[in-house]
Structures are given as structure tokens and as C-alpha cells.
């Protein structure tokens, strides 16, 4: 099952949200993100959160659509996005894609990116998609489709990583170690329409920049 979590960061291009939703089987809305779904008139399967950021019109729309609402206290140990991820994990998903995870609040943006690690450790494919970035995570081998000249970065997220191999990119690596905090993997470029990223030990974020070429 492909699950989409829509959260209340910045979503400017509704077509991106729509395309992700159309390729998903289950939609979870985190609190104030209902305003984005309302613009598309696409009801989620459930709304979760403390309901402190959803506006009156969006909540009325949710109620009119008969959407299930799971409300939590304002004072809680998880963000609304993590609550939505927890509910997503209960659906036995094959993939969880988060839209709206990046915004002006750097703390929330970084926290949401770190949620990819939580999902990944459960053995589930995890992605964040917005107008500019497609972010995923791996501790083994993944193939990433792209366009020649498009930017891609590989960033350690779990400490130092060992045995990194990059193929199909302008700056290849073979069995190379990358320390946590190093910028070695930043701003590489596709030289083919597909890149392969392999890691022997550790976990990396793989960030493809989507507003180019």
C-alpha cells in the first residue's frame, strides 16, 4: 500500500500534490494541511492532529466530507506530522510519501526529514517531495532516475558512512567513506538518466533537485 501524508508546510504547486495523491492508496492529512486538500477537493481518509492550525472553513469541509478525525491534545510528545506517520505505519504500507514537509520553520523541516529515518528503519520506503526536492533515504543500494545535468546530493544522516559507491554521476565514488558533516556528497550531477547509490555501512539521505534542466 502506498500512503501519502500531507502536512502543513509549504505547498505552492498543487499539481505536485495531486500527482502524488493519484499514485497513492491512502491519504493522511496532518491538521492544517487540510487547506491544501480542500483546494483540490480531494478528501483524505483521515485527519490527525491537535487541530490547532486547521482553519474553520477547512474543518467544515472535512466534516462535510465525513472524514474520520483523530484529535490529540495540544500538549503532546509528537508533532502532528509524526502522529500522521505513526498512523501511516499502522496501515502496513510499502511506501510513505510526505508532501508539505518543508517550510519556513527550520525545526519542523529538519524534524520531518529525520522522520524518513524512522520510517526507513521499519523497512518501509520513505520519501519527501516538494516543488524543488525529492528526498529519500538508503542504507543499501538504490537506483534514482534523473535527467542529465540534474543535481543530486548524498548526505550521511546516521554518523560516518562506509563503502559509498556512486555510479552514473559526474563525480563517481567507489567504496569511499564519507564522514558525518562532510560536504563531499553535495551537488553531484547526473551524466546518465539513472544513478546508483550504494552504502555498505550507515545511512544516507539522497536529495534530487527537481527544478533544473
3D architecture notes:
The protein is α/β, with parallel strands linked by helices and 213 residues long. It folds into two domains: 2-131, Rossmann fold, CATH 3.40.50.10240; 138-209, Sandwich (Jelly Rolls), CATH 2.60.120. The chain is 23% helix and 33% strand. The chain has five helices and 14 strands. The chain has helices at residues 14-22, 34-40, 56-64, 80-89, 106-120, and strands at residues 2-6, 26-30, 46-49, 68-71, 95-99, 125-129, 133-138, 141-145, 151-156, 161-167, 173-178, 188-189, 194-198, 204-209. The strands form two sheets. Strands 4-3-2-1-5-6-7-14-9-12 form a ten-stranded mixed beta sheet, sandwiched between helices. Helix 1 (14-22) links the parallel strand 1 and strand 2 (26-30). It is elongated. The model has no long low-confidence stretch (mean pLDDT 96). It comes from Alkaliphilus flagellatus. Residues 146-205 form the Thiamin pyrophosphokinase thiamin-binding domain. This is Thiamine diphosphokinase.
Widest sheet: strand ordering: 4-3-2-1-5-6-7-14-9-12
C-alpha termini separation: 32 Å
Q: Name the CATH architecture of the largest domain.
A: 3-Layer(aba) Sandwich
The succession of helices and strands, N to C, reads EHEHEHEHEHEEEEEEEEE
| Total separate domains | 2
Biggest β-sheet, characterized? 10 strands, mixed
Summarize the helices and strands and which ones pair or pack.
Elements: E1 2-6, H1 14-22, E2 26-30, H2 34-40, E3 46-49, H3 56-64, E4 68-71, H4 80-89, E5 95-99, H5 106-120, E6 125-129, E7 133-138, E8 141-145, E9 151-156, E10 161-167, E11 173-178, E12 188-189, E13 194-198, E14 204-209
Parallel strand pairs: 1-2, 1-5, 2-3, 3-4, 5-6
Antiparallel strand pairs: 6-7, 7-14, 8-13, 9-12, 9-14, 10-11, 10-13
Amino acid at each position: 500500500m502506498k500512503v501519502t501524508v500531507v502536512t502543513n508546510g509549504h505547498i505552492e504547486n498543487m499539481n505536485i500534490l495531486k500527482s502524488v495523491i493519484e499514485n497513492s492508496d491512502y491519504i493522511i492529512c496532518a491538521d492544517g494541511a487540510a487547506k491544501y486538500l480542500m483546494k483540490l477537493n480531494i478528501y483524505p481518509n483521515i485527519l490527525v492532529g491537535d487541530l490547532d492550525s486547521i482553519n474553520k472553513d477547512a474543518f467544515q469541509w472535512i466534516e462535510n466530507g465525513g472524514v474520520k478525525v483523530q484529535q490529540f491534545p495540544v500538549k503532546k510528545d509528537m508533532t502532528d506530522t509524526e502522529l500522521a506517520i505513526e498512523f501511516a505505519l499502522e496501515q502496513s504500507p510499502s511506501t510513505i510519501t510526505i508532501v508539505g514537509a518543508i517550510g519556513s520553520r527550520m525545526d519542523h523541516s529538519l524534524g520531518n526529514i529525520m522522520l524518513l529515518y524512522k520510517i526507513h528503519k521499519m523497512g518501509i520506503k520513505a520519501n519527501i517531495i516538494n516543488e524543488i526536492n525529492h528526498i529519500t533515504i538508503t542504507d543499501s543500494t538504490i537506483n534514482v532516475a534523473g535527467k542529465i545535468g540534474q543535481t543530486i546530493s548524498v548526505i550521511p544522516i546516521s554518523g560516518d558512512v562506509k563503502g559509498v559507491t556512486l555510479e552514473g554521476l559526474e563525480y563517481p565514488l567507489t567504496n569511499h567513506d564519507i564522514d558525518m558533516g562532510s560536504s563531499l556528497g553535495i551537488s553531484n550531477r547526473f551524466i546518465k538518466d539513472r544513478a546508483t547509490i550504494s552504502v555498505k555501512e550507515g545511512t544516507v539521505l539522497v536529495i534530487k533537485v527537481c527544478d533544473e534542466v
